[in-house]
Write a structure and sequence with these properties.
By secondary structure, the chain is mainly α. It has one domain. The chain is extended. The N and C termini lie far apart (40 Å).
Length: 78
């Protein structure tokens, strides 16, 4: 008998402001991951979350994104 289990998980990196992160920490349960928190919040407040989409603007957005991508590469490739 042979059992093959293949689980493919997909991950996304998001960037949020520090004050938003701190607010999320107050909502997060002790042993809850951020993914579980977002799942819980999205199940309850999908309309509220949709209103947040696109409400943030950035100065030097391209520079910020370039720095994020470079840091990701450093972590991935050492």
């Amino acid at each position: 008998m042979c059992l093959n289990i293949n689980i493919t998980m997909s991950f996304k990196t998001i960037t949020i402001k520090k004050n938003v992160y701190e607010k999320l920490l107050t909502l997060k349960k002790k042993d809850e991951s951020f993914s579980a928190l977002f799942e819980r919040l999205s199940n309850k407040n999908i309309d509220a979350l949709r209103k947040l989409r696109g409400c943030t603007s950035y100065k030097n957005k391209e520079k910020m994104l370039k720095e994020i991508y470079n840091k990701r590469k450093e972590k991935r490739y050492g």
